[in-house]
From TrEMBL, chain A:
Protein name, as recorded: Cytoskeleton protein RodZ
Native organism taxonomy: Bacteria, Pseudomonadati, Pseudomonadota, Gammaproteobacteria, Candidatus Competibacteraceae
Low complexity: bias regions: 173-190, 199-216
SUPFAM superfamilies in the record: lambda repressor-like DNA-binding domains
Region: Disordered, residue numbers: 165-216
From TrEMBL, chain B:
Organism per entry: Plasticicumulans lactativorans
List of residues binding ATP: T20, A21, N22, G170, G171, T172, E218, R219, I220, K221, G298, G299, A300, L301
GO annotation, cellular component aspect: cytoplasm
Record-linked SUPFAM superfamilies: Actin-like ATPase domain
Major location category of this protein: cytoplasm
Name of the featured protein: Cell shape-determining protein MreB
Name of the gene encoding the protein in the UniProt record: mreB
Any matching Pfam family: MreB_Mbl
């Protein structure tokens, strides 16, 4: 390829020299000096010299070279058509490409640079992402309105089961039984016994719950902390059915606008709508709660007064989170 | 509008040199596809106040010029490079645009670039634009004729160097100095090929007492017309109506007589070139002096017109290759760039 180009170049150079020699020979044959010819043809002297030396580019763009060649031939009586034909054959007669101001030679036209494929790829990726987001939103809407069962399965991966801390009832029950044998009679004797707590609480909260029983504080003040789980779990252990049917209280606080949907264990919709920043709702219903939050990071939850760890319902991707709160806890208590 | 876009998919982009004497159309990717006289033959309904219909357009209409019966008239809708009859121009353009599109299923709706004289007013430009739109164009761009002519001639319009182009058309002659893709100075005179014909008719009538028609005058100009005296004297036999006898007579005209007849319009063109050179900024004038002046347009085909300008200005003068089509070809090259570089380049409106 390179060799062919070199050969072509060499041939062109030969043709240029031949044409230049023909012009020079024509002038010398007629015994004219370059200056005489310049005057006769009405051409600048440097142009005559350039043409006779084959330096056509020095004359200017092809339009001028062609015009000067015509004048040169007419002044000497040479065959101008033949000369023009030879000039065209050199491949130098093509007009220069149009360029804009300040545009370098050979620059790619607008929109046809090397970045073009990448631009197309970026647009494709954005379109695909937009489509996926749109599908997700539609799925969310359908799931929220409860019209489609398929959305539940598609979003199964998003659902998060609640795993509350300190929620290990069976060992706690046995430990409590061993360490504080006085606790069960005290707890069972308490007349205004609070509703069974499916969720373990802090020791202070438990203490407050037990305050109605004066015997508890008097009998074993040092064992208050140890008593707590035993007291909490005793009703659950004794009456699992009652725990499952008990009403739970869910508090939602919104730090930013978010849509939310909450259903209780019976499938009843307790909340469905978009709530503004700063608003709060307290819901009471049968556990477990099925919760869907549009902007999960902007919502603080409390279940029966105990804050729920945000890690529990942090969305795996995006901002939407679906999870069940209290169901497995209730079941666990029952077990 | 939407339908026009759909039709546009089936149309070629066109560059139109809407000249006083000839209309040339350059189709993108195809080159010059039409070169016809800007003449329209109109048939008047015999009933008084009846409708007028187009009988012929272009070459066919030109053959009728001066040979029409009472109910038929030939019109040249362009005068001095601008529209003289809006409706007829629109019909003529419509005819030409359809002619260059072979497909018949859709009416063509191309993007069109029309070359307009530099000296035309805003009203005249608007009329040309409206006319092209009325003829079915989807979008219309206008470009000054000298700019298109310089590009078509292959002049280095983008360089920071002055280039002078003289475009001698049918109705106007335009002189422009171009640098950096813009027109720095222009001079426009309403003198062109038509005035040459008119001068020949007047000369023959005054000196020979014979009346000749426009087609005959044009033939004389093309065959023996000359702009500079030479030893090579050419002759032509012409037939016309003798004014005193009232009968047709034939007589011989030579090139020196035609040269004498053309003195006045030629002086007008040379005057415009000189005026442009006087008004050009010195740096650009120096550039022009270095390389010379380029002549384009049908008027550049007049024998020895380059020699006349050279003698009068003292500068080198060259005639562009195929000067008649320079404007249309230049417009075509610009049209090809509009997609890539936008429509604001090369003084396109």
């Amino acid at each position: 390829m390179k060799k062919a180009d070199t050969q072509q170049q060499g041939r062109t150079q030969q043709d240029v020299s031949s044409l230049a020699a023909y012009l020079l020979g024509g002038r010398e044959e007629r015994g004219l000096s370059a200056a005489d010819l310049a005057q006769r043809a009405g051409l600048p002297l440097p142009a005559i010299t350039a043409l006779e030396n084959g330096r056509f580019a020095e004359v200017g763009p092809p339009v001028f070279v062609r015009g000067y060649l015509i004048r040169y031939c007419r002044a000497l009586g040479l065959a101008e058509e033949a000369v023009l034909e030879r000039y065209r054959a050199l491949g130098l007669a093509e007009p220069p490409p149009l360029r804009l101001r300040g545009e370098p030679d050979g620059s790619a036209p607008r929109g046809q640079g090397v970045l073009r494929p990448f631009t197309y790829l970026l647009v494709l990726v954005l379109l695909a992402y937009g489509g996926w987001r749109g599908f997700e939103l539609v799925s969310t809407y359908l799931a929220g309105s409860g019209t489609s069962g398929t959305t539940t399965t598609s979003d199964a991966g998003v659902r998060q089961e609640l795993a509350l801390p300190n929620a290990a009832p069976p060992p706690a029950t046995s430990a409590a039984a061993g360490s504080a044998p006085v606790a069960p009679p005290l707890a069972s004797a308490a007349p205004p016994a609070p509703p069974p707590e499916p969720v373990a609480r802090a020791a202070t909260a438990e203490a407050a719950t037990l305050q109605p029983s004066p015997a508890a504080s008097a009998a074993a003040p040092s064992a208050t902390a140890a008593v707590t789980p035993s007291v909490a779990n005793t009703p659950a252990a004794s009456a699992p059915a009652a725990a499952a049917d008990a009403e739970a209280r869910l508090e939602l606080e919104f730090t930013a606008a978010s849509w939310a949907e909450v259903r209780d264990g019976g499938g009843r919709i307790l909340l469905n709508g978009t709530l503004r920043a700063g608003s709060a709702r307290t819901l009471t219903g049968k556990a477990p709660f099925k919760i869907a939050l549009g902007n999960a990071q902007a919502v603080r939850l409390k279940l029966d007064g105990a804050p729920v760890d945000t890690a529990v319902y942090a969305p795996k991707r995006g901002t939407v989170s679906r999870f069940t709160l209290g169901a497995d806890q209730a079941a666990g208590s029952g077990d | 509008m939407v339908f026009r876009r759909v039709r546009g998919l089936f149309s070629n982009d066109l560059s139109i040199d809407l000249g006083t004497a000839n209309t040339l159309i350059y189709a993108r990717g195809q080159g010059i596809v039409l070169n016809e006289p800007s003449v329209v033959a109109i048939q008047q309904d015999p009933n008084r106040g009846g409708p007028r219909t187009i009988a012929a357009v272009g070459m066919e209409a030109k053959r009728m010029l001066g040979r029409t019966p009472g109910n038929l008239s030939t019109i040249r809708p362009m005068k001095d490079g601008v529209i003289a009859d809006f409706t007829v121009t629109e019909k003529m353009l419509q005819h030409f645009i359809r002619k260059v599109h072979a497909r018949k299923f859709f009416n063509p709706s191309p993007r069109v670039l029309v070359c307009v004289p530099c000296g035309s007013t805003q009203v005249e430009r608007r009329a040309i634009k409206e006319s092209a739109l009325g003829a079915g164009a989807r979008e219309v761009y206008l470009i000054p004729e000298p700019m298109a002519a310089a590009i078509g001639a292959g002049m280095p319009v983008d360089e920071a160097r002055g280039s002078m182009v003289v475009d001698i058309g049918g109705g106007t002659s335009e002189v422009a100095v171009i640098s950096l893709n813009g027109i720095v100075y222009f001079e426009s005179v309403r003198i062109g090929g038509d005035r040459f014909d008119e001068a020949i008719i007047n000369y023959v009538r005054r000196n020979f007492g014979v009346l000749i028609g426009e087609p005959t005058a044009e033939r004389i100009k093309q065959e023996i017309g000359s702009a500079f005296p030479t030893s090579d004297v050419r002759e032509i036999e012409v037939k016309g109506r003798n004014l005193s006898e009232g009968v047709p007579r034939s007589f011989i005209l030579n090139s020196n007589e035609i040269l004498e007849a053309l003195q006045e319009p030629l002086a007008g063109i040379v005057g415009a070139v000189k005026k442009a050179l006087e008004s050009t900024p010195p740096e650009l004038a120096a550039d022009v002096a270095e390389r010379g002046i380029v002549l384009t347009g049908g008027g550049a085909l007049l024998r020895d017109i380059d020699r006349l300008v050279m003698e009068e200005t003292g500068l080198s003068v060259v005639i562009a290759e195929d000067p008649l089509t320079c404007v249309a070809r230049g417009g075509g090259r610009v049209l090809e760039l509009i997609d890539e570089r936008g429509a604001t380049t090369f003084s396109v409106e």
